[in-house]
User: Fold this.
Amino acid sequence: MEAASITETASAPPPARKAGDVLNAYALPLLLFGALVAQFIYEPTATLDNVKTGLSNGMVWALIALGYTLVYGIVELINFAHGEVFMIGAFVSLSLWQTFGVTDQTSLVLIVVSIIVFLACSMFASASLNVLIERAAYRPLRNAPKLAPLITAIGMSFILQNVGLLWRPTPDQVPDLIGSHAKYFTIFDVDVLHSDVFAVVITVPLLMGLLWFVNNTKHGKAMRATAQDPDAARLMGIDVDRTISLTFLLGGAMAGAAGLIYALYNLTVRFNMGFTAGLIAFTAAVMGGIGNLKGAVIGGLIIGVIQAISDGGNFLGLRLGEAWTPAVVFGILILVMVFRPQGLFGEETREG
Amino acid sequence: MSAAIASIRQGRNTLRGLVPSWTWMLFFLVLAILFPFATGSGSFLDACIQTLAYVIMALGLNIVVGFAGLLDLGYVAFYAIGAFVIGWFGSQQFPDVNGGKGIHILVSDRSTFQPKLSGGKLDIAGIHINFFFVIFIAMAITALWGVLLGAPTLRLRGDYLAIVTLAFGEIVPRIFENSTSGLFGIGSTDFSHGRQGITPIDTINLPWSKDILYTDANLKPAYWVALGMVLFTIFVNRRLRDSRMGRAWIAVREDEVAAASMGVNLVRTKLWAYAMGAAFGGFAGVFLGTYTNTVNVDQFEFGQSVFILAMVIVGGMGNIWGVIVGAIALSMMNRYGLPQLNDLSEPLGFDVTAISFGIFGFFLLIMMVLRPEGLIPSGRRRLELHESEIEGPEDTGAVGDMSQMYEVRK
Assistant:
C-alpha cells in the first residue's frame, strides 16, 4: 500500500489516533458498504447484477482515474483535459477499425490481432497527446499561481472537445467485435457478458504493469521522488521535466486503453463523452486518495458499482435511474471532498 | 521621448484636476441611458440587454473569484436557481395553487398576457408575483444556497474547491431536470417540465408603464431595467470592495493564514463572499429568465460557468471595470464575432460556429500564457502574477553590476 502511493511521506511517524479520527476514517466506507448490503437484502439478484456491471465498468473509470492521480500526485494539477484524452483514444481506435474495415464479420484471429494492435495504437496516440498538452499548456505555467494552469486545463479540454466535435459530430456506432452483450457464463443467476470479461482481461494486466512500473523501475522511483519533492528530486540528479512528461505519457496511455475498452463495451462513442467520464474518474481518484494508485483503482470500482446501482433505478425504494446518476456521483464527490479530502483510505496528500 | 510622455501625463493630470471624476461617470451614464435611441429596438439592442445580464453575472462571480480568491466553476448553478425562481413565481408552472385560481401579487394583465376579468381580477392559474419582488426572493434564495455550498467547503482550497463547486454546478441543473414528478419519486409536483422547460414567463411589470414590456418592437424598457440592475450591481460591488468585508476578502485571497492571524474571521468572510456572489447570479438569472421568456436546463451547462469565468479572467480578476469590459467583450464576441467567422467555414471546410467553445478555450489558454492578469488588471493582481519577472530584472541587474565591476578591474 505504502509503496503504491506516489505521494507517501517517507518516514513520518504515524500520528496518534483519537477515537473520533478512527470513526471519521471508517465512517464513509462503512456507510457505503452498509448501503450496498441493505440494497442487496432489498433486491438480491438485481444488486448482484449491478455490482457485476459496476465492477467491469469501474475498470474503465479506474484506468482514467490513474491518469488523474498520477498527474495530480506529481504536479498537483487537475488535468481537466484528461477526459478528452480518453475520448480521443476511443475515436482513434474506432477510426482504425473503420479504416482497416474490421467488423464483427471479420475472422476471430484478425479481430483479436486488431484489438491488440489498435490498443497499442490508441494508447500511443493518447499518450502523445497528453504529453503534448503538458508541453503546450502546463509547462509554460509551472511557476505561475495554481489558478493559471487550472484555467488553461479547462481551455484545453474545450479545445479537444471541439476537435472531437469536428471529427465525429454525431454519436457513432462501434462495430460489435466482441459480441458485447452476449452471455459468457452465468454465476449466482447473474449473466456475465463478453464485455465484462473483456474489460477485466484488458484492464488487469495494464494496472499490474503500471503498478510494477511505478514501484519497481528506476523511472518509477524518479516519479515517486518528484511527487514527494520536485526540488529535492532535481538536486538528486532527476530530470524533473522528463519525469513529468513520462507521468503524462503513462496517464495518457491508460486513458487511451480506457477509450478502446469503453468503445467496445458501450458500442457507441460521442465527442462529449470525455467530460462526464473525466469527472466520474476524478471522483474515483479523489475517493481513493489522490496520488494513491491502488486507491484510484479501488475508487474506480466503487464508483462503477455506485453508478450501476443508481442506473438500476431503484435504490432502497428511492427512484433513481440514469438521469440521476451524474447527480448521485457528483453528490458523492462533494461528500468525499468535504469529509475525507484525503480519500477513503486515509492517504495524506500535500493538499491536505 | 520620455519628456514628451511626461508632458502628456502632466497635461492629462491637469485635465483631470479641472474635470472632477464624477462628471465622466455622469457623462457615461447619460450616454448609456440614451444609447437605445441611437440603436433602435433591433437585434443589436437585444444583444446589449443580454450583455448587461452577463455583466451582472461576471461582477457577481468577480466577488467570489476576484475579491475572495475562491475559484468557483459552478457559478451557473446560481443562475439556474434564480431563473427557476422566476419560473416558479411568474408562470403557470403550479396550476393547482390556491384551488386553481392562482396567486397574484402586484401583477397586471400586461405582464401575464391574460385579459383581465370584468371585476378587475386576473384569471390565470399559477403563482404570479411582481418581477421586482421576485428579484429579492431569488437573491435571498441564491444567497442561502451560496452559504449552503460554501459552508462545507471552507476547509478546502484551490483545486479541490474548484471541483466541489463544479460538481455543485452539475448537480443543480440535474435536480431541476429530473424533478418532473416530485423529487426521487417522493410527491408528484412538477417543478420544471423536464427538458422542455418553463415557458411563458411573466414580463417585467412597471406600475407606470402602459405597454407590455419588451415586445420585439419595444426593447428599450427592458434595456433600462437591465441598465438599472447593472448600475445597482456596480454600486454594491464598489461599496463592498472598499468595505471592511471587501478588504477582508482581499486579505484572505492573498494569504489565508496571515489574514486569520490578523483577526479576520475566515468563516464569516468566505461565506459572505459566496452569499454575495451567488445573490448576483440569482439576480441576473431572474432577469434572463423573464427576458428570454423561458427557463430551460439546457441553458445551465458547465460551458456557461466557464464562459462567465472567462469574462472575469479576460477582463482582469478583481477589477470591477476590467470585469465589465471582459463581459461586454466576450458576450458581444459570442453574439457577433463568432458568426463573422462563419465566412471562414467555406475555406476551412467545417462549421466554425459549432466550435465556439473551443475558440473560447483557445482564448483562455492564450490569455493565461501571455497575460494572466487580464486586459485591465487590478494592480495587486498584476504584481502577484508577475512576481518572478519582477525578480528577474533584479537578478540580471546584479549580474550587470558584477560584469561592470569586472570590466573596471580589467
